[in-house]
Amino acid sequence: MALTSAAGLVSLLDDKGPELKAYALKRLDELVDEFWAEISESVSKIEILHEDIGFEHNKLAALLASKVYYHLAEYQDALHFALCAEELFDPNTQSEFVETIVAKCIDKYTELRVARDQMLDSGSSLLRQDSTGDRTWSSGSATYKRLELVVDRMFDRCFEHKQYKQALGIAIETRRLDIFEKALTLAPDREGMLRYAFRVVLTLIDSARLRNRLLRIIVSVFMSRPSPTDAINVCQCLVLIDDPQATADTLERLLLQSAEGAVTAYQIGFDLYENSAQMFLHRVSAALARSAKLSNIFNAIEKEKHKDQKAAPIIEASSAGSTAEATKTTDDQLEKKETQEGEDSAAAETKPTASAAPPVVVEPLSETDKEIKKRVENLMSILSGDKVIELHLQFLIRNNKADLRLLERIREEVRHSVTHNATVLANGIMHCGTTSDQFLRDHLSWLGKAVNWAKFTATATLGVIHRGHEKEALRLMSAYLPKDASGSSGSVYTEGGGLFALGLIHANHGGTMTEYLLNQCKEAIAEPVRHGACLGLGLAAMSTGREDVYDQMKLNLYQDDAVTGEAAAIGIGLVMLGTGSTQAIEDLLGYAKETAHEKIIRGIALGIAMVMYGRAQEADELIDRLAVDNDPILRWSGMATVAMAYCGTGNNKAVQRLLHSAVSDTNDDVRRWAVTALGFVMFKTPEQVPALVSLLTESYHPHLRYGAAMAMGVACAGTALKEATTLLDTLCEGTVPFVRQGALIASAMVLMQQNAVTCPKSVEFREKCLKIIGDRHEDLLAKFGAILACGILDAGGCNMTISLQTRTGNNNMTAAVGLLLFQNFWFWYPLTNFLSLALSPTTLIALNKDLKMPKMQFKSNAKPSTFAYPQPLQPEKEKKREKVETAVLSITAKQRKKEADRKHHKEQQQQQKPKDGEKEEKMDVTMCDISQVSSSHLTFLHVINSVTLLPRTKSRQKRKRKTRNRTFLC
């Protein structure tokens, strides 16, 4: 007979005999799932039995108490007593109770390990205790050891069942680096497991310290059985760890290994240039130059360099165009000097440490050493960026498909300085990197309409057009650069724009050009020249962290000049990009509190965001501080800092913070930036962004709608996502001009690299832009957006797109910074030129071991129209001029008819006159003989009949009656 109550068994717990108590506990443990409600009333008695050390079955009492608390949903207590049951709690048992407790074990263990790890990160040696304040869960307690034991048993079960990925994931969550390494080592598919671990570490780990520790383990596992293929993955990890010495050692080993290893080293070099900062590349090159095994090779390279320098005069780039002697040279001499400077600059950057080494005696090289020397030279040309820039430049020049007829059409429609400025900017973006300035040369008089800062912007676009053309940069820009220390030889706006253009040409690849721009920054006096020098210097020295450049920028910032200060603050952000420098942050924030210039504070806001690029959790404290500041500019700086610090992470906490500020802040700029920043954080999952901001596109607040448009433009650039284009089409048809402007620009970003086959909507969008440009009743802001959209659609001669991640899937730092600064064209149009930093050539270049492009053919199964360039604008057909019938008024028609009747009557009279010698015929009439009436009377009758057609007045009616009487009287 089945039991209906557990009261009898519960009563046995009060018995003095231990045997009865043990029996009661065993039976209750079997019946607890059915009678837990009754048992729960006596749970205190069960706890007493557990605490009785002398009781033999106290662990069974702990297990029973755990099950009771489990049914009461008191999982914390259930976990505690389950651990106290020790071996009686078997995590391998298949039951709901065990699965729940094991899950709670892992959660609690993760919580404790993460808290402990964070305490270590903050520098504290104290271990975190439980939130209740007791030491139950401290690392030295028995409960903690039992908890760890349960988790270890779970790891063992994963390994037994060959669930290596599950074990690896839990190991990362619980910060168990030993288990992480064990999972990588035991996995049968080692390469696949390493790739999986690498991807997980990059996408899911926010803590920089933990990420670096995990990456070092991956590197150690890779290096345990090294192969040329593994070296590529190893170097990707070393870049993220910021270990240039280990990277140089890997490259050195490959260079000395074999020809195949050298080719792998070249590929690693290309990846390093694409994914790492300037300073890292310089340190790798310097480490290679210091290598003992390659010392003889570098000595031979140094000797050849000295020979080249003796054959041609040496001219320092830093003195070009800035010394007093330069002003006395003729134009031909200046051109020759600058050409030589470009060559010397490229050579110095290819071998950055060679010039510092003293002359040494070089031993003759063997055939093997000569081969290695060639490999080293090839690798150094790749690491310096010269080879990549040269190849991309050739591609863009050869395949330039920019539509000049489109620019002509836009130019003809321009009627305002704003649209004039937009046309010049669109031309720069459309010809980015192509070196084609034909449109500007053909319309010099039209271009001359630009004045003051518009002239500054127009000159800076030359830097966008000649981006990467570094060897000829000084010669090309010589006419626009300062000729003396004061910069007063020409227009200060042109000279400032010229310095800015130099920075755009050498962006993130400054080399010796950094010294030239640093001297110009020191010597400049005029505001526009200093403005351009600060921006150009920041671009050339991007992410180098150079203290001398930082000090000069700070000196310009502290002059409290609005125009110069803004550029200096942006320049500081560019130089200290991604360093997380506490000193730079404190300097910028401190001056933001002192200055009264909003323009400077806006520059500081952008500078702070750039300094914290990629710092993730390290930036949280600063973001919290900025988000509650009284100054709205610093508050939107907090939103921009979230965009940079969590760029591409998709971090939920960052997204929640941005959405909260978007709907709760009282300032329009803060709300706009908060929504725009979502695009930067979520760009690796573009398909999620339209759904995320769809409700914001319907907001009553225009700044939220603008931000939503830009978020989709940033995240979905080049994807042609249907959801994004649909939302943007709706925003383009709005009534607020600046929202339409943002929607047009964002639509162009989304539809880049699309044609009529891949995305038919792109053709409709092009027509829409031309319609807006040609409509004289359209608002200027909408026209500005439409003109800029035309340039973005055909960026780089239809061969470039906006890409925030590299080919290997890492963040593209330069592109992220370029898009961030481009967003501030809202306040300052010259910053539009920073969009060029976000543009990447859409090309796949194949090279052989000599770094030359082989002639090869391949078959594509896709239709040619799939990858065809967009159709250029067709010229309008000249229509034959047709004669248009002139409009005739009714009164005029009547008058003409009257004259025609009169003429016709006269002709009839002439015909009716009898000829000479002929007898006039008579006609019978009813009232009288008409032949007796003279011709004058006939004429009078005709006139009277005609007059009766006109409107009759009283006087005319009287005359009419009299006339009629006279007529019949005759």
From TrEMBL:
Entry protein name: 26S proteasome non-ATPase regulatory subunit 1
Tell me which residues make up the 26S proteasome non-ATPase regulatory subunit 1/RPN2 N-terminal domain: 4-297
Biased composition, class Basic and acidic residues, residue ranges: 328-340, 875-885, 913-922
Q: What is known about what this protein does?
A: Component of the 26S proteasome, a multiprotein complex involved in the ATP-dependent degradation of ubiquitinated proteins. This complex plays a key role in the maintenance of protein homeostasis by removing misfolded or damaged proteins, which could impair cellular functions, and by removing proteins whose functions are no longer required. Therefore, the proteasome participates in numerous cellular processes, including cell cycle progression, apoptosis, or DNA damage repair.
Which controlled-vocabulary keywords does the entry list? Answer: Membrane, Proteasome, Repeat, Transmembrane, Transmembrane helix
Q: Which GO terms describe its biological process?
A: proteasome-mediated ubiquitin-dependent protein catabolic process; regulation of protein catabolic process
TM region(s), chain numbering: 826-847
Q: Which GO terms describe its cellular component?
A: nucleus; proteasome regulatory particle, base subcomplex; proteasome storage granule
Q: Name one GO molecular function term.
A: enzyme regulator activity
Does this UniProt record's set of keywords contain Manganese? no
Q: Which domain of life is it from?
A: Eukaryota
- What Pfam families does this protein map onto? HEAT_2, PC_rep, RPN2_C, RPN2_N
Gene3D superfamilies, per the entry:
Leucine-rich Repeat Variant
Residue span of region Disordered = 309-366, 862-922
Q: Quaternary arrangement and interactors, per the entry?
A: Component of the 19S proteasome regulatory particle complex. The 26S proteasome consists of a 20S core particle (CP) and two 19S regulatory subunits (RP).
Compositional bias ranges of the Low complexity kind:
317-327, 347-359
Q: Where is the 26S proteasome regulatory subunit RPN2 C-terminal domain?
A: 842-922
By sequence similarity, the record places it as follows:
Belongs to the proteasome subunit S1 family.
